[in-house]
Each structure stands twice: as C-alpha cells, then as structure tokens.
Amino acid sequence: MTAADTQLDRRMDQLHTWGPYGLLGISVVLAVVAADLMDGPAEWQAAGALVAAALALQFWWHGTRSRRPNRGRTPSRAGTAYYVVRWAIAFGLTWINPFFAFYAATGYMDADELIPGMWRRLGLFASAVTVAGAQAGGLPFGSGAQWAAFVALLAANFGLQALVAHVTEQEEQRSRERGGTIAELERTNTALQQALDENAALHAQLLVQAREAGVADERRRLAAEIHDTIAQGLTGIIAQLQVVGGAPDLTTARTHLDRASALARHSLGEARRSVQNLAPVALENDGLPEALKKTVAEWGERTGVRAEFTVTGTAEQLHEEISATLLRIAQEALSNASRHAHATRLGLTLTFLGDEVILDIRDDGRGFDPLAVPARSTAAGFGLDGMRARAERVAGSLTVETEPGHGTALSARVPLVRHDR
C-alpha cells in the first residue's frame, strides 16, 4: 500500500468518525433558523430529546470504534444496530423538521462499513426514504403532488446510491483480487529466492566436489606420467649404463653414455613438466585467455607446429575452478597433439557466450578412430576420458570429431561461472 493510499484511508476514517457530528450540528442550526416549521414546545422538546439521543449514540459508537481500531470499518452486528438506531432517530427528527435530513444523509456515507452483504441495500433504501421525504416537503404529506414528488425523489435517491454502492463493491472486489495477486507474487518470489539460495549452495558444493575430484585426478595423472615417462627413462638409463660396463671399447662406451645422458635430460624435462602441471601456475597472475595464449605460444615454439589462439565474445573473469578445468583440458589436448597427431597446424579458440564458455581445439594431424581408442586404465595416460571427466565435473561436456587422416576437432563446453568477488 502506497503513502497516498494510507493517507486516503486515514481521511475516510476521519470522515466516518466526525461526519455524523458535523451533519447533526448543521441540521440543528438550520432547524433553529427554520423554527416556524416546528409546532409548539412539545416538538421542541421532542427534537431536543432526539438530538441528545443522537449525541449519546455517536459518543457510544465513537468509543466502540476506538476500542476496535482494526475492525472499525468492518461490518458487524454492533455496526448494524448502530445504523438502525441512528436511522430511527434521524427519521423522527426529519418528521419534526425536514432540515434534519442532513443528519439522515449520514446513512449514505457509512452503510458499506456498517451493514454486511445485501442488507446494505436495505439500509440505503431506508435512508433514501427519510431524505426523499424531507426533499418532498417534509413528513407527513398533505397532498397527492407531494406523494408523487416523494416517489420520484425516492427512486432518484435510491437509484443513485445503489449505483454508487455497486461501483464501490466492484472496486473492493478488484482490490481484494489485487491483494491476492500481490500476496501470491510475494509467495512466488519467496519460493524463487529459496530456490536461488539452494542453487547457489548446490553450485558451491559442486565446485568443492570438483576440486576434490581434481586433486584425485592429478594424483592419478602424475602417477601415470611417472610410469610412462620418468620411470621408462630411468629404465633406459640403467640399460645404457649396463651396456657401458660390458663395452669392448671406449667408442662404444661413449655412445651409450651419450644415450644415457640424453635420456636423463629428457626425463628431467618430463619431471619438470609434470611438476609444473600439478597446479595451474599459469593462472596465478593471468586470466584464462592470457594463460591459454602463453600455453599455445610455448607449445608451438617447443614443437615447431604452427599454433594460433583466438578469443571470441566478451571475455570475463571466470571462477578459478572453471579456468583450471579449461586450462587442464587445453594442456592435455596439446600434449596429445604433440605425441600422436603429427600435425603441422593447430588452432585453439576460446568463446564466451551468454551462459557458457566453449574451448575448441582443431589440428590437421592424422586423426584416429574414436571407437578404436582403448578404455582408460590406472596405468594409462590422462587421455580423452580424463578430459571428459574434468568437463562433466563442472556440469560441462566434451565432444570429439575425428577420423583417420582428417585431423581432430575437440570441443569442451562448460557453464560460465564468474569469479567470486
């Protein structure tokens, strides 16, 4: 409810409280001015008694309204009794002097708040009888012309008041419907806010689970890389050194020592790469686009493959888990491309859409048959299954399009979750 509505209700309440006093006072003043319409002391005494009764009735009702502030404008039995007694007093006063019809007109003001339901029409009709009688010259009538005027005035008064009452009831009904609609909207908004809060909690839980699962994946990946690279390199070094021990000449020994040294340098490089990949250090000082750009440039420089990086859409600061997921997928895809694809050209595109981020990696390598890829095992490398698991862990997906001799296209789609501020 607006301030204007509150102020209007306050003024209407004041009118219903003090209006009967004012109209009674006006009626008394006009009755005194038109004293010639009253016959003798008996009518004056009767009028005085009825005015005193009207004042007592108003004082009683005023006190009743004050004790029931929340129900003062709600129809009740007490309100109906007050209306009937006031009408009877007003009818008696108008019979004595027609100018008391001003007090009788109070029945038009508050019938809606005093009388319930269809009885309201009867109250308006009774008030219209009193007012129309005064307008026709005062009760009792002395001629047929007065009766005719009374009937016409009664029809006009009651018809007008019935129309006003109907419009008022329709407006009250619309107001109740609006109130119900507003209450329903408030309940809906409350439910929506609760759903949003629950979604935020679930999202936070999802990120925690993704982080925990990522740690486990890192352990498995590191173990697999040690087995596939460092352990194999150390085995090769041992084998070369064993050959040196039984070499027949210095030249043969030097050759195998050179091979052992090369294997050691290669294993050291692999160890450093594994440690570097253990945590996304590239994201410590840069956002995802900058980290991917540097990763692609370093990979192209190391492998000699022409590599390009492109960003489309409006770049945003992503949640660290989303950034780490995409960076890890890109690093593994580049590693796979250098090991298996034998590509001459590779392109990586990062696309920011309204509610998701897409990472596309395409190369012109030799491709492969997706159905022929062996299932992942504990000793296998990270591979496609691992990249797909990373994407799915943050409610994303990974698709691969490839065939032998026609390159590979990999696309990771994840939700666009902004960085926590």
Attribute tags:
single chain, 421 residues, alpha+beta, 68% helix
Q: State the distance separating the first and last CA atoms.
A: 37 Å
Strand content: 5-15%
Main sheet record: 5 strands, mixed
Structural class: alpha+beta
**Succession of helices and strands:** HHHHHHHHHEHEEHEE
The strand count comes to 5
Describe this structure in words.
It contains 11 helices and 5 strands. Helix 2 packs antiparallel against helix 3 (77-96) and helix 3 packs antiparallel against helix 5 (106-114). The protein has helices spanning 3-33, 40-67, 77-96, 101-104, 106-114, 119-135, 144-245, 250-277, 288-303, 320-341, 383-393; strands spanning 306-312, 345-352, 356-363, 397-402, 408-415. It has a 5-stranded mixed β-sheet. The radius of gyration is 47 Å and the shape is rod-shaped. The two termini are 37 Å apart. Helix 10 (320-341) links the parallel strand 1 and strand 2 (345-352). It is of the alpha+beta class and 421 residues long. 26% of the residues are buried.
